[in-house]
Amino acid sequence: MTSQAPLPSLAALENATEFLPRHIGIDAADETHMLSVIGEASRSALIESIVPRSIARTTPMDLPLPVTEAAALAELKAIAGKNKVLRSFIGQGYYGTHTPGVILRNILENPAWYTAYTPYQAEISQGRMEALVNFQTMVCDLTGMPIANASMLDEATAAAEAMTLARRSVKSKSNVFVVAGDAHPQTIEVIQTRAKPLGLEVRLANSAEEWNDLLAGDYFAVLAQYPATSGRIEDLRADVEKAHAKQAAFIVAADLLALTLITPPGEYGADIVVGTTQRFGMPMGAGGPHAAYMACRDEFKRSLPGRLVGVSVDVHGKPAYRLALQTREQHIRREKATSNICTAQVLPAVIASMYAVYHGPEGLQRIAQRVASYTAILAQGLVQLGAPVRPQATFDTLSLHTGDATKSIAARAVQAGANLRIYFEEYLCISLDETTTRADIELLWKVFAQDGQALPTFDAFENGVEPLIPAALRRTSSYLTHPVFNTHHSETGMLRYIRQLSDKDLALDRSMIPLGSCTMKLNATSEMIPITWPEFAHMHPFAPADQQTGYRELDEQLRAWLCQATGYAGISLQPNAGSQGEYAGLLAIQAYHRARGEGHRNICLIPSSAHGTNPASAQMVGMQVVVTKCDDNGNVDLADLKAKCEQHSGSIACVMITYPSTHGVFETQVKELCALVHSHGGRVYVDGANMNALVGVAAPGEFGGDVSHLNLHKTFCIPHGGGGPGVGPVCVVEDLVPYLPGLPGQGDQPLSPADGKVGPVSAAPLGNAAVLPISWMYIRMMGAEGLQAATETAILSANYISARLKDHYPTLYASANGHVAHECILDLRGLKETSGVMAEDVAKRLIDYGFHAPTLSFPVPNTLMVEPTESETLFEIDRFIDAMIAIREEIRQIEAGKLPQDNNPLKNAPHTAENLLTGEWARPYTREAAAYPVAALRQGKYWSPVGRVDNVYGDRNLFCSCVPVGDLA
């Protein structure tokens, strides 16, 4: 009689760890095989041989046990339910909007869009770059400016960047920056934070008299809000002329929806225009993510911060998009960069551009006219009720001088289900938006009506109402005239246009993206689901705190979990990109030294291998960068660091290191490095770019780090979105907690940071709050053991790739036992001499094999840095390895003289279908070798939409707007 197999336990059937094998692509059998290739007996033995014993964690992370996807969603739904989403009339830069369903489903919820990376590889990024050129064209048209970038992080940081752009660009020698007091409070606060370490003086004009007096004085630039935060629209022409007479720049923070009806700043001489595109289809989300914008005069374009998409041509002479003028950016110019911005807001920018494409100029104008008409109707009704409406030209916002009754009226509105904005204690502001209905107007009338008072009706307004915009301030110029904004207005047409663009791109939904230092891991569907829940999506960032209980609980839990992962004592989630987390961390170090009477400490030691954002961020806080050497093995040269510490001992503010290093190695002397800098009074900044190699196995806050930033869009599963959004929390040890960023917009007027404190670095208290549920879900479903397994698997996969490719491409840097961390640098430098092949040629040839290239020529020129992450299956990793080996065989044919150095599959890559199908084939290899170099490609082939893009042509012939239709033929 056969024995019956034991029944599975109830715990096994409940399967609380079900998400672990969904996230990690390597199973037990795969792991055994990979370890045998590497030459290690077990995964734990591999990790012990790689992670220095001196820094290895001895205690596990204290995190909740993992739960299933369904259980995590239910738990988070309960937290979301603690938010109380009222009808928002707060305004202040955040407004209700309708995300068209075709855009919501096919872009925001579509992995073909949200899992893509920043479009450094132009050929496989044509779809999203076309959408970004649409964005740039939209901004240029609406602002009346000649050039715009491809998004900024939020309106407040865009205004701060405009301030520094103006300082670099104008002739005035003054250090005074004049800001209108009726700009959005959060914008003023972020400007003040940014100005202080740069020695710039911000002067606020809180009245018309102060404004006129300041404009008559000495300054390098001035900023005005248009319309003002109170809703008022003013004619700024004379003020612009005054600024120009002082050789100063005039900056306008403008509302794009309002610009469909009011005179665009470019038409009255503005030099720089900034703002947000939030109300173009992106929910408020408690503050973000939203795509800000910056447009400027043509003369300023080479100092413009952020990414700029331009039009070039490919090798066949066809129009092709590419990132233009990259020599401005931090990854090239480092401490001389125009900004430290790296990740921006590409996905929200794509959504905003598609909102404009879908509605077109007539649709946008109709929405704006409805908002303006409802505002006028609301005003007339309130006047009938005797409410103290302040007379002003306005688009969407009314200001009422309510005096002592201000708080009681605001409370009455809350009871009715609406939030009004208290402004300077004695005023109420009411802002309308795209979602405003007649019922909303009637609700507001009821709030202001006295008991028994008859309410106004809509009868008198049915035939239209004159907006509260004077004729002299109304727009007369056309906008969005390009066919792309006048074609795709049916849902069928829009759906197909979106699909047409996404088909041009290569994202994680198609194949592995092995970019080193980028951590392109799974962005699980269950993690993404909560971001569109109304409880999270429709919260205003400045709604009363008692209405944001759910967000507060989410914030507290996520910060506590991230402290467990990093070993730090305190965290702020406010920075809305890794670059901003760096900036906030350096501000904390600076404030710490200042509080100790050592404000003179301004030296930032940075290894030569550091990410470009490091020196760019140090420059932004006014620190002096001193570069330290790396040795022949890629490690920080401790002898040189010691010499620099002794040379600058009394002036050292900090050292910035990346760990594991940007060379993909766990440096064994990191604790000694930290102790050395501490002995000279400096603090240690550990860049969290490579945190995916540390979670669960080592904690920077425990091995000597004082500050780190994280990239939640790397290690903790927020998708890259084609170049944003991101979240860059700043993490600190106990004595630096008091110097974390302050919270913006906490009052009805801007607050100056308290003495010794750090002001806000983002427009909203929680930065890109709406994407925080993604990281919460990831941690909740993985648990401590799952997170550690993810780290160890990422390291395993990188070492497997290094081991399998060692006979074809040597790994440039490794530890003494030949192992790497979670990424490896493949050395292609010798190929130039033997075959004429450069790393770029291999990168482009990989496109023909269906892969996004690894990181190209960073941190070492003519190399490829590969990071597979834990999410990739062994099948996909082997497919990549096989592609790399096949390419090496093609190179060997060149080395053997069987293929010419200037005419071969690598130099001619990528190959387009059109190129293969038209004309004679006069190349020394077959069409089949070009298109199907390995048999597996016949099962499903990605075709590059363009040939290799001409970068030099694109910068010499800069064109950053929609391509004329005739050029596309």
Which secondary structure elements does this structure contain, and how are they paired or packed?
Elements: H1 10-14, H2 19-23, H3 28-38, H4 43-50, H5 69-80, E1 87-88, H6 101-108, H7 111-114, H8 126-143, E2 147-148, H9 155-169, E3 176-180, H10 185-195, E4 201-205, H11 208-215, E5 221-226, H12 237-245, E6 249-254, E7 272-276, E8 292-296, E9 309-313, E10 319-323, H13 330-333, H14 346-384, E11 397-401, H15 406-415, E12 418-419, E13 421-423, E14 427-431, H16 438-448, H17 491-502, H18 525-528, H19 534-537, H20 549-566, E15 570-572, H21 578-595, E16 603-607, H22 613-620, E17 624-628, H23 638-647, E18 652-658, H24 670-679, E19 683-687, E20 707-709, E21 730-732, H25 772-805, E22 824-827, H26 831-835, H27 839-848, E23 855-856, E24 863-866, H28 874-895, H29 913-917, H30 927-931, H31 951-956
Helix pairs in contact: 3-25, 4-25, 5-20, 5-25, 6-14, 6-17, 8-14, 9-10, 14-16, 20-25, 21-22, 25-28
Structure in words:
- The chain has 969 residues and is an alpha/beta fold.
- The protein has a domain at 782-930: Aspartate Aminotransferase, domain 1.
- It is built from 31 helices and 24 strands.
- The strands form six sheets. The chain has a seven-stranded mixed sheet with strand order 2-8-7-6-5-3-4, sandwiched between helices. The chain has a seven-stranded mixed sheet with strand order 15-21-20-19-18-16-17, sandwiched between helices.
- Helix 10 (185-195) links the parallel strand 3 and strand 4.
- Helix 3 crosses helix 25 and helix 6 runs antiparallel to helix 14.
- The chain is globular, with a radius of gyration of 28 Å.
- The protein starts with 9 loop residues before the first helix and ends in a 13-residue tail after the last helix.
